[in-house]
Write the C-alpha cells for this entry.
Amino acid sequence: MLFAVIMAGGRGERLWPLSREETPKQFLKLLGEHTLLQQTVERIAPLVSNEDTYVVVGREHVGIVREQLPDLPKKNVIIEPMGRGTAPCIGLAATRLARIDPQGVMIVLPADHAIVDEEHFLRVLNDAASVAEEGTHLVTLGITPNRPATGYGYIQAFSPLKAGDLGTDCEVLSVERFAEKPDLKTAERFLQEGGYYWNSGMFVWRVDAILREMKEHMPQLHDALRDIEEHAGAPDYEQNLERTYAGQEANSIDYGVLEKSEHVLVIPTGDIGWSDVGDWSALSEVLETDDVGNLIRASHIGVDTSNCTILSKHTSEKKRLVATLGISDVVIIDTDDILLVMDKSRAQEVKKILKIHATKQESEKA
Amino acid sequence: MLFAVIMAGGRGERLWPLSREETPKQFLKLLGEHTLLQQTVERIAPLVSNEDTYVVVGREHVGIVREQLPDLPKKNVIIEPMGRGTAPCIGLAATRLARIDPQGVMIVLPADHAIVDEEHFLRVLNDAASVAEEGTHLVTLGITPNRPATGYGYIQAFSPLKAGDLGTDCEVLSVERFAEKPDLKTAERFLQEGGYYWNSGMFVWRVDAILREMKEHMPQLHDALRDIEEHAGAPDYEQNLERTYAGQEANSIDYGVLEKSEHVLVIPTGDIGWSDVGDWSALSEVLETDDVGNLIRASHIGVDTSNCTILSKHTSEKKRLVATLGISDVVIIDTDDILLVMDKSRAQEVKKILKIHATKQESEKA
C-alpha cells in the first residue's frame, strides 16, 4: 500500500501577520485559489487517494482541516495533543498506519510547501516509493539548489549507489552528512562544490522501516508510541496520549533518526520549483512577478516600485488601495488589524516583531 | 483697524491620502488637537479678534469652515466660486474690507501652515503691521532659512532701510528679487551667500495699498473686483461673482503684484519654526520625532526603524497595529481606504500617484 502522511502542525510565524496562531500558513490561500494544505493533498491525488491520505494536526486545528478537506475520511485526521516536532508526529502516524499495513510505504509531506512542477514531483515520488518498497532504506527528497539559500538545511550526498540494485533507474545517493542552515559564504561553497541538496522535509519509507529505525535511535519515543497504541480504543486513550506526548522531548526526525541511521538515501528531485514558503521573501520565488520583480496581490498604484511584495487582505468588502512611490525590496502585508512594512532581506526576522507584540499584549492584559 | 484674512482654498494634494478633495489639509488635525485652520485662527487671536478675522474659501468647504470656526461671524466667511490663485482671493477680501476701513491693515495668512514659536510670530506681525500702517508698503514675511530647502520660493533681500523711518525698530529689508523654488545646488548657494529668505506667503499691508498696487499691476483684476463690489447686495451678486471670477486668469499675488511693485518690503521672521507642511516629509520638521528620527502617530512596533513618518488614521474604533522592520526614511500613511508607502525623499511626488489614481477612477466609471 502507498500512504501519504501530511504534517499540518506548523505555525508559520514568519508569514505573520497573515499567518496567525488561529490560522497558520498551511490553512491560507497563499499561492492560489486553494490553501497550501488543500494544494498538498491535491498534488499527490494522482498517486494517493483521499482514503489513504492522513493529516496529522494539533487539536485546535482539526476543525479547519475537516472544513478544508471535506473528502478526507474523518478517521484520517490524526490529532496531536501538542506539537513535539516531526519525530513524534511521524511516529504517531506510522504507528497508526502499522495497524493497516506495516509493510506499506508512507510518503511524509509538510502541509505548507510550494511545488511548481507537480508532474515532475509525482515522478520523483514514484521513484522514491520504488526504492523504499524494499524495506531497508529511508528516502529523503533532496532539492537541487538553484541559489545559495541560507534558510534551508543542506544534505551532502555521497557517491551514487548502483541504482539497479534499488529497483529503480533514477539517481539515488547515499548521505554523507546533514548540514544546518549555513551562512551565505558556506552556502556559496556548497553550491560551488556540488553534491549538496536542500533538505526538503519530504520523506518516503516503509512504515516498519521508520518504526524500526526509531526503535534503534529513539527508543524512548518508540516505547511511548507503543504505549499510546496499546491504549487504542480504550476510554482513557486521549488522556494517555496527552500525558505520554507531554512527556516527550521535542525533536525532529532529522536529528532523532536520519542523522544517525545508516540507511538514509537521497533522491535528488531536480528543479521542481520547490519552496518551503518560509518567509515573505520566499513568496516571490514561487509566484510570478511583474517585469520589475513586484509580486502584487492588491489594488495597487506604484511609481518607481520594484522587487516589492505587496499583499492586501481584508475581510471587509470595501476596496482598499495600496499606493507606493520610490521603494524597492520592501514587503507590505496589509491585513484588517495589522500592517507590516519591512525590508525584504529582513523577512526571516519577523519573529522579532511577533515577540514584542506578544509581550505588549501580555502587559496590556496585566 | 487690524484685519486678518485667512486663505483656506488650498488643496493640499501632496498630503494625500489624508488630505482629500472633500477635506483638504487645512481642515485636518495634522499637528495636534485642532485643525490647521483652527490653529491659524487661534494663533493670531491675541492680535486679531474673531470679529475682524475673515476666511476666504471655496463654496464646497463653507460648511467645514463654519463647523470648525463656530465663533467666526457668518459674514466673515468670504466665498470664492472657484480657485483662481491668491491674487483674486486677496483682491476679493480687500474689496470687502474696504467697505469697513480702507485704511485698515490686513494680515494675509494661508490656513495650512505650521508655526512653532507663536509668541515670536505675533511680535513679527505687530512689527509688520506698524510698518504697513503708514500706507505705502506691502510687507511680506521672509522666513530665515535653516536648510537649503528646494520646496520653497526664496526672496533675495536688499540692504536694510533706515528702520526708524518706517515707524519700527525691527529689521526691514527691501526686495532685490523673487526666486522660484530652486534646485539643491542653487538653494545651497542662497544659504551660503546669505540675504535670502523663504517666501512664506504671509503678507501685511493696508487695504487701500494692496488695491492701489493691484490697480497698477493687475488692472483687469482690479476692474473685475470693482464690478463684483458694485453688485454687492444685488439679487444677481452670486451670479455676477461667478461669471466675473470665471473670466479671471489664475494668478498668484507674488507674480501679479509683488514681483512688479516697487514698494515691497521683507521683514525677516527669524526662526519661528515655520513650515508650509507642504508634503509628508515636512511633518517631521515641525513635530517632535523620537531619538531615531521617527514621527509616529499609530499603534506601532518597530525593529530597526529610523527617520520614518508613520501615521495611521481610521474611522473604525478597531485598533490597528503598524509593524515595521529594517526600514529607514519611509513614509507610511495608513487610512481607511488608502495605504501609502513611499520613500521620504520622494514626498514631493505624491501628485504622480494622485494623477494615476484619478485616471484609473475615470476609466472605471467609463
Q: What stands out?
A: The radius of gyration of chain B is 21 Å. Residues 2-278 of chain B form a domain with the Spore Coat Polysaccharide Biosynthesis Protein SpsA; Chain A fold (CATH 3.90.550.10). DSSP finds eleven helices and 17 strands in chain B. Chain B has a mean pLDDT of 93.
